[in-house]
Design a protein that fits this description.
The protein has 114 residues and is an alpha+beta fold. The chain has 4 helices and 3 strands; from the N terminus they run βαββααα. The N and C termini lie far apart (86 Å). The model has no long low-confidence stretch (mean pLDDT 80).
């Protein structure tokens, strides 16, 4: 990290900002010995070319690829999946509705028999 004294009269501010943007450096600005601000380059937007470079730099599975595929398939087949991921919440909701209906019916019977 570069440091610059803001009280110095010889700072060329436009060139300093261009330097930060072009060279991707962080510049700390100080008043005396006390840091007061930082000039930081804006993060560049990522592109598909960046993604492609990142994916190509990942290590390959090599000989382990087939074993990894078999392990994943084995785990998938051993898991019991619901046809509908919302089924559990629907069942729970139905149970609470049925319980509410049952309680209302009991209360109605109790009030009508008295």
């Amino acid at each position: 990290m570069e440091k610059h004294e803001i009280l110095a009269s010889n700072i060329d501010w436009p060139n300093l900002v261009r330097h930060v943007a072009r060279d991707r450096v962080v510049v700390e600005l100080a008043e005396g010995q006390v840091p007061v601000a930082r000039l930081v380059p804006i993060e560049r937007p990522k592109t598909f070319a960046d993604l492609d470079r990142a994916l190509r730099s990942l290590p390959r599975l090599g000989d382990d690829a087939e074993q990894f595929k078999a392990d994943v398939n084995q785990v998938r087949s051993s898991l019991k999946e619901l046809d509908d991921p919302w089924e559990y919440s629907r069942r729970k909701e139905r149970r609470s509705v049925l319980t509410t209906i049952g309680l209302r019916q009991r209360l109605w019977r109790m009030t009508t028999t008295c």
